[in-house]
Amino acid sequence: MKPDVYAANCPTRQILDRVGDKWAVLILLLLREEPMRFNQLRRTIEGISQKMLSQVLKSLERDGLIKRHAIATVPVTVEYSITQLGGTLAAAVDPLRDWAEQNLKDVLAAQRRYDTQQKDEAA
Questions:
Q1: The pTM is what?
Q2: How far apart are CA 95 and CA 98, in angstroms?
Q3: pLDDT tens-digit profile of 47-80?
Q4: N or C, which end of the chain is more exposed by having fewer CB within 10 Å?
Q5: CATH number of 11-122
């Protein structure tokens, strides 16, 4: 049976959840450049909490998009790298990042127009 993303129980939606998660996308794009340690990721991705980073890394690892490598040091050093599968997803979402950067001004202008219109209609 062919997946139907519009069906409530379609597993494809789980993958789309990953694509729609800004933290997951940012992590994948960073790891595409080079493997990184947990704290290196946390310092680079401004605004992500330690708890959220941990949760997203576990989800990405579970999905086979990244791999976790523990290095026997004291304390243990953990490094994350992107898998081949994760690399294909990062390549697919990178144009979305480009689009967001290129159209940011237009989107912000549209939001201001909308907000102004809503205020005027409420008055």
A1: 0.85
A2: 5
A3: 999 999 999 999 999 999 999 999 888 888 899 9
A4: N
A5: 1.10.10.10
